[in-house]
């Protein structure tokens, strides 16, 4: 049936005279009156029917008379959005009956009444039913399957008739953002219905339809991959993607995890897996096809013979003379194909990659295996899916020929997979991940289930050329299936999709998976499966006895662990060590012990005598003595790769049972008393050595034993500070290094290393000969608060006083600690250099802007650039690899691409804007100037270097609208330039040992923290709002903006011969704030409180009663405006997502606010009882805030810390008052926060300045209104 895109209503125009309850409007496609005569007769007589509408083509309407009692609606096609809209325009009933086909249909007795009754009783959005089908003059039952969340496939069979709730049809057509589809209109509509209510299946045969598609199931199943349907599939994918986004199940592939293919050692690189049952006709061909592969790696073939009863087993035995063939007959008799896969995958012979071959099928060439294995490494995927050709037993091609599944795209294939019923073949899997998940034990859809689960977190790779021959033959089980079998298969895959959607929704909402998904955990689990001795000890550890001892504010755990006697009782004198073989050397390890290579120097092993739930030993690959100085950096590297670990070091006489073999240890992080109490300990550190704002050495004061902590952000700083500390530690005569234990872990971006200086190997009680003997030999874990006792008598009798005394005995004394501190301070003083003054700029300076950072960066050079002496053009990719930058197969420490023409630009993909703000998103952005790529920590940072004035064009374009008044743009150019040059000066000062950018004060009951700019060390400013929003030339620069920058070129604000730190925010709320209330306590004469209007009266908003009055009202101010024209000058599209800014209101329940504050501050407040301002600035912004809870009272400040604590992102400002209500037993159940302004409020108010510009103020008047006492000066031409 052909339709045309014209919408004309024929016959008569329907007049809506009111909705009649429980009535139906019918919509029937028609291309032949005779096909609908029977149903028209029934509908015209039915009391449930209000109107009958025929959906016809223009040609049909012109050449045919409209049947009596009907009207005609001309539509383009049945599946378009336009048709849905036409139906909506022509219904005023409660329900719409829609026929999906133009074939004859016969309603059952009272079928409409039954449809209507079920729709009403279920309150469903849509109902459908089972029916009879007439196939080749024979009537058969055609049951349907129930609809569920996972019934997203676009070929879901509803039958011919649907009853739809008309109210939802109207709601669908009035959506503010609706996409128009030519082919996916109905699909998009039914997905919408599924979000709004139930789609209900009536398990009753309510009508009879004539089936016109009589092909076998095996011929129908590939319709969706037919290239002729590609345009349809593109639209279907678009609708499915929008639906997943709407239900919170859309996967962003940019967040995918990267697999570590070397996480375990394998004898074979690949294994072909062939499950088989009774395939005597085909199995030999399949096995020979697998064994005939040409590869440059070792592979084998595992055939799981599922108790065949024909000659299959005999044939496999005949082929077994090839040692690569592993023939397994499982013990179990209840296995499906998925169960057979699990037997193969978990077998010791299985290789790193497991590759599918069905017992009916063949590989297309001898190169298939090699192509698949190469694809794993090239595409960084955990699953590879190839393409296959349908053929008969003689390999003649059958329709539709090559099945390549090109509907799968790199960016959206994982989401589109929920719309289709298959992924393709052959399928290959990364074995450790399959062992972690395991196939479902079914014989249909088991591979699809794995693909969905993998695609949640990992990339699935594709090979689009032919790899595989899928043979169809008479005995093939997939050739023709009954409707019952088809329904069962579809129902199962719908169920898989339902599970996957639920799993994705939970994952995206932050719920952790039940199984820890990381390579170390998989290595750990596999080792326990293969090594019973270690498994037994880890199992025993779960039942080990433990006690807690209270030592003041600290808790010490005591663990009874008899398996540790081998370590605690170890003699480490030279003669004993020389007599025993080194148990850490590879040649002396147990055969069952697996090793994972960490890098060129170290392996990772499971410790068979564990203290921690997960416990590893990390020995050097060479037999070297225990020594930390030149190997300390390994701790940093391990934590950078495995963030969930805690790494520790025992010195040669400080708990190391193998001092002759260099090794570290690692294990579960977060279980040591030192870590558990870190939040408290961290508040009372004494910093004694600092490299910069975030990297320093401090003394831990409040723990059981004295210690130092090194806080670092990068490997270089960590190593440098450790070397300083190492040199200051005492070293005893004849010792190879200072005695110490180290415990390290990672907290967010911060590396923490706690160093316990020692003076003694074991306490006196260890060697005691009387009842005072205790076999306790402290190592790093003991020092961190878990004392190990291998004897029960020691475990039961040790007291808190004894435990503390033992640890203090082996540590250096307080006086010795002071000596170390003095040495560190002297070293710091000796290294310190004088701060150099920064001269005025003689000419326009160059600015370096940090754009994006990551392990991999994609970019495109849009015009020729020069790098490493070569001219480069087009798309490029760089990756972090082994401490450097991998580009075009070569490794560099730094790369710079120099433009070869003034208009040369480069594009950076996936640049995040609005980091940690409510408008955060990713964009492709385009930049002029040079592109420099440098290594920072374990990432590559992309830096754009360009002239300041060019940079400002982008900043003003990003911050302001081109329609802004010229005076506003000029004012903004001056403050942006001033702020930038000020930050460039400060960065240079920091590099030369000057002021820091970040500070705080804290104690047990108070944390006052202020955030200046980001601590940028390798560039001047970042491209995000934390500095100034910079998007290169992504956002077109208007002539208006260029003119503003040109007219103010080189102009900055100055005060007292210094460049002004020209702060600005979106909306001051009527009164600007003073600098010291938001940042350090150093007032700036030009950043004072200013009333944002022409008046001079300034109420004292530091007083609570004045602040409450001010905030609860809406005083006149420049920034108090709803003028959309003015607001659009300042608020870009993503900023305009915030509708209220001058005065705003946020409501929290008790549960919400207590959870939010406790989560943000990492303090258990219990229930929040009160939120009390203790200090306000002159704009009413709170700079100190007391939070009173049932469990804890705590004070926080300054303004940004307060805003972060009271919102998932940032509260609009800290100028607010709090209303408490619904008080139960003294605890408010609701908190209403009423606030003023948006941002810190210091300096220029952007919205206020925009209003001033519209009112005719000049740019110098605007500037001097907000920056009182400042001067505008030109510092370069």
Can you offer a commentary on this structure?
- This protein is an alpha+beta fold and 1277 residues long.
- It is built from 38 helices and 55 strands.
- The strands form nine sheets. Strands 32, 33, 34, 35, 36, 37, 38, 39, 40, 41 and 44 form an eleven-stranded mixed beta sheet that branches. A ten-stranded antiparallel beta sheet has the order 21-22-23-25-24-29-30-28-27-26. Strands 1, 2, 3, 4, 5, 6, 7, 8 and 9 form a nine-stranded mixed beta sheet that branches.
- A hairpin with a 2-residue loop joins strand 40 and strand 41 (939-947).
- Helix 14 (431-437) packs across helix 17 and helix 31 (966-991) runs antiparallel to helix 37.
- The radius of gyration is 36 Å and the shape is globular.
- The protein starts with 23 loop residues before the first strand and ends with a strand.
Structural class: alpha+beta
Work out the radius of gyration: 36 Å
Outline, from the CA principal axes? Answer: globular
Strand content: 25-35%
The poorly predicted ranges are 1-21, 832-839, 994-998
Question: Concise description?
Answer:
By secondary structure, the protein is an alpha+beta fold.
What keywords describe this structure?
alpha+beta; 1277 residues; 55 strands; disordered N terminus; single chain
Task: Draw up the topology in text.
Elements: E1 24-29, H1 33-45, E2 49-56, H2 58-63, E3 70-74, H3 81-89, E4 95-99, E5 105-107, H4 111-122, E6 126-135, E7 138-142, E8 161-165, H5 166-173, H6 185-196, E9 199-210, H7 217-220, H8 230-246, E10 270-276, H9 283-291, E11 299-305, H10 312-319, E12 325-328, H11 337-345, E13 353-356, E14 362-363, H12 368-379, E15 383-391, E16 397-403, H13 413-416, E17 427-430, H14 431-437, H15 446-457, E18 460-471, H16 483-508, H17 519-530, H18 532-541, E19 546-551, E20 554-560, H19 565-568, H20 574-579, E21 596-597, E22 603-606, E23 615-619, H21 632-641, E24 645-650, E25 663-668, H22 673-676, H23 678-682, E26 686-690, E27 696-700, E28 707-712, H24 715-728, E29 740-747, E30 750-757, H25 764-767, H26 780-783, E31 786-789, H27 792-797, H28 800-810, H29 814-831, E32 846-854, E33 856-867, E34 870-881, E35 884-887, E36 890-892, E37 894-899, E38 905-913, E39 921-928, E40 930-936, E41 939-947, H30 948-959, H31 966-991, E42 998-1003, E43 1006-1011, E44 1021-1022, H32 1039-1047, E45 1051-1055, E46 1058-1059, E47 1064-1065, H33 1104-1112, ...
């Amino acid at each position: 049936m052909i339709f045309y895109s014209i919408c004309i209503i024929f016959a008569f125009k329907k007049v809506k005279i009111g909705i009649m309850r429980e009535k139906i409007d019918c919509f029937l496609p028609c291309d032949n009156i005779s096909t609908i005569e029977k149903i028209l007769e029934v509908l015209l007589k039915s009391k449930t029917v209000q109107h009958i509408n025929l959906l016809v083509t223009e040609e049909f309407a012109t050449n045919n008379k409209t049947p009596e009692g009907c009207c005609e609606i001309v539509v383009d096609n049945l599946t378009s959005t336009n048709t849905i809209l036409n139906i909506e325009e022509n219904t005023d009933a409660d329900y719409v009956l829609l026929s999906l086909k133009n074939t004859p249909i016969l309603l059952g007795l009272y079928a409409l009444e039954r449809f209507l009754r079920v729709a009403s009783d279920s309150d469903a959005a849509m109902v459908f039913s089972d029916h009879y089908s007439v196939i080749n003059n024979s009537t058969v039952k055609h049951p349907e399957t129930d609809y569920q969340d996972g019934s997203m496939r676009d070929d879901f069979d509803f039958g011919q008739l649907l009853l739809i709730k008309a109210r939802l049809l109207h709601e669908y057509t009035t959506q503010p953002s609706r996409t128009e589809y030519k082919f996916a209109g109905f699909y998009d509509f039914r997905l919408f219905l599924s979000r709004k209510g139930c789609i209900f299946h009536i398990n009753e045969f309510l009508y009879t339809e004539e089936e016109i598609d009589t092909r076998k199931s095996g011929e129908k199943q590939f319709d969706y991959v037919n290239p002729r349907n590609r345009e349809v599939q593109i639209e279907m994918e678009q609708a499915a993607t929008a639906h997943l986004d709407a239900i919170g199940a859309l996967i962003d592939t940019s967040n995918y995890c990267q697999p570590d293919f070397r996480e375990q050692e394998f004898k074979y690189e690949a294994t072909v897996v062939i499950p088989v049952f009774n395939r005597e006709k085909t199995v030999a061909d399949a096995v020979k096809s697998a064994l005939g592969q040409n590869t440059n790696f070792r592979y084998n073939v595992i055939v799981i013979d599922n108790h065949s009863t024909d000659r299959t087993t005999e044939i496999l035995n005949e082929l077994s003379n090839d040692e690569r063939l592993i023939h397994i007959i499982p013990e179990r008799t209840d296995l499906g194909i998925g169960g057979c896969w699990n037997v193969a995958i978990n077998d010791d012979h299985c290789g790193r990659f497991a590759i599918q071959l069905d017992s009916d099928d063949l590989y297309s060439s001898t190169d298939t295996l090699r192509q698949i294995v190469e694809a794993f490494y090239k595409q960084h995927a955990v699953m590879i899916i190839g393409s296959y050709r349908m053929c008969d037993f003689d390999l003649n091609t059958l329709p539709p020929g090559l099945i390549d599944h090109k509907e799968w795209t790199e960016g959206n294939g994982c989401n589109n997979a929920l719309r289709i019923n298959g992924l393709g073949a052959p399928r290959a899997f990364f074995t450790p991940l399959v062992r972690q998940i395991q196939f479902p034990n079914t014989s249909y859809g088991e591979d699809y289930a794995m693909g969905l689960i993998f695609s949640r977190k990992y990339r699935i790779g594709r090979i689009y050329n032919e790899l595989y021959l899928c043979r169809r033959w008479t005995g093939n089980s997939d050739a023709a299936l009954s409707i019952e079998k088809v329904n069962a298969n579809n129902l199962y895959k719908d169920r898989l999709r339902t599970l996957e959607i639920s799993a994705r929704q939970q994952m995206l909402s932050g719920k952790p998976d039940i199984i820890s998904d990381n390579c170390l955990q998989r290595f750990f689990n596999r080792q326990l499966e293969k090594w019973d001795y270690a498994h037994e000890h880890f199992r025993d550890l779960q039942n080990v006895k433990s006690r807690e001892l209270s030592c003041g504010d600290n808790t010490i755990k005591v663990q009874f662990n008899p398996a540790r006697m081998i370590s605690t009782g170890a003699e480490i004198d030279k003669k004993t060590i020389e007599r025993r073989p080194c148990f850490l050397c590879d040649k002396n390890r147990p055969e069952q012990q697996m090793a994972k290579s960490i890098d060129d120097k170290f392996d990772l092993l499971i410790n068979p005598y564990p203290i921690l739930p997960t416990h590893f030993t990390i020995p050097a690959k060479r037999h070297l003595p225990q020594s930390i100085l030149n190997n300390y950096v390994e701790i940093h590297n391990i934590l950078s790769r495995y963030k969930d670990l805690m790494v520790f070091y025992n010195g040669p006489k400080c708990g190391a049972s193998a001092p002759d073999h260099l090794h570290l240890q690692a294990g579960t992080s977060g279980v040591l008393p030192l870590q558990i109490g870190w939040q408290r300990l961290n508040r009372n550190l004494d910093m004694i050595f600092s490299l910069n704002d975030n990297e320093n050495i401090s003394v831990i004061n409040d723990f059981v034993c004295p210690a130092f902590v090194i806080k670092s952000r990068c490997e270089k700083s960590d190593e440098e500070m450790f070397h300083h500390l190492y040199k200051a530690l005492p070293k005893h005569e004849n010792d190879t290094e200072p005695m110490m234990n180290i415990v390290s872990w990672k907290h967010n971006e911060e590396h923490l290393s706690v160093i316990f200086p020692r003076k003694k190997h074991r306490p006196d009680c260890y060697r005691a000969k009387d009842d005072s003997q205790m076999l306790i030999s402290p190592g790093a874990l003991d020092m961190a608060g878990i004392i190990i006792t291998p004897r029960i008598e020691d475990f039961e009798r040790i007291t808190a006083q004894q435990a503390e005394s033992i640890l203090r005995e082996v540590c250096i004394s307080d006086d010795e600690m002071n000596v170390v501190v003095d040495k560190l301070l002297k070293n710091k003083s000796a290294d310190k250099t004088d701060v150099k003054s920064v001269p005025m700029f003689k000419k326009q300076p160059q600015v370096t802007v940090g754009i994006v950072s990551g392990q991999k960066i994609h970019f495109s050079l849009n015009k020729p650039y020069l790098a490493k002496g070569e001219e480069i053009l087009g798309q490029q990719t760089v990756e972090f690899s082994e401490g450097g930058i991998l580009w075009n197969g070569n490794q560099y420490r730094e790369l710079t691409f120099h433009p070869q023409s003034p208009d040369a630009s480069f594009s950076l993909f996936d640049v995040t804007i609005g980091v940690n703000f409510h408008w955060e998103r990713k964009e492709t952005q385009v930049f002029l100037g040079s592109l420099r790529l440098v290594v920072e920590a374990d990432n590559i940072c992309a830096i754009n270097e360009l002239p300041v004035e060019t940079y400002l064009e982008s900043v003003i374009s990003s911050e302001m609208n081109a329609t802004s008044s010229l005076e506003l743009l000029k004012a903004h150019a001056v403050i942006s330039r001033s702020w930038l040059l000020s930050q460039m000066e400060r960065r240079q000062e920091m590099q030369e040992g000057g002021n820091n950018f970040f500070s705080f004060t804290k104690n047990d009951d108070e944390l006052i923290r202020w955030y200046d700019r980001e601590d940028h060390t390798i560039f001047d400013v970042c491209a995000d709002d934390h500095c100034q929003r910079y998007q290169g030339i992504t956002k077109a620069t208007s002539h208006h903006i260029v003119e503003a920058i040109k007219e103010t070129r080189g102009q900055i604000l100055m005060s007292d011969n210094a460049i002004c730190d020209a702060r600005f925010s979106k909306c001051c709320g009527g009164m600007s704030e003073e600098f010291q209330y938001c940042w350090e306590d150093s007032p700036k004469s030009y950043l004072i409180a200013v009333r944002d209007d022409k008046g001079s009266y300034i109420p004292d908003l530091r007083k609570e009663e004045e602040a409450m009055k001010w905030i609860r009202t809406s005083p006149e101010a420049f920034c108090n405006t709803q003028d959309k024209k003015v607001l659009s000058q300042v608020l870009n599209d993503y900023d305009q997502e915030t509708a209220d800014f001058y005065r705003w209101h946020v409501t929290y329940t008790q549960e919400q606010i207590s959870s939010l504050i406790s989560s943000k501050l990492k303090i258990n407040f219990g229930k929040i009882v009160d939120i009390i301002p203790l200090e306000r600035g002159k704009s009413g912004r709170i700079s100190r805030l007391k939070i009173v809870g049932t469990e804890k009272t705590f004070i926080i400040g300054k303004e940004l810390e307060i805003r972060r604590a009271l919102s998932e992102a940032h509260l609009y400002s800290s100028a607010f008052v709090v209303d408490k209500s619904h008080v139960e037993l003294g605890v408010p159940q609701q908190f209403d926060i009423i606030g003023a302004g948006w941002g810190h409020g210091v300096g220029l108010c952007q919205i206020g300045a925009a209003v001033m510009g519209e009112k005719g103020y000049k740019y110098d008047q605007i500037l001097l209104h907000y920056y009182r006492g400042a001067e505008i000066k030109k510092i370069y031409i």
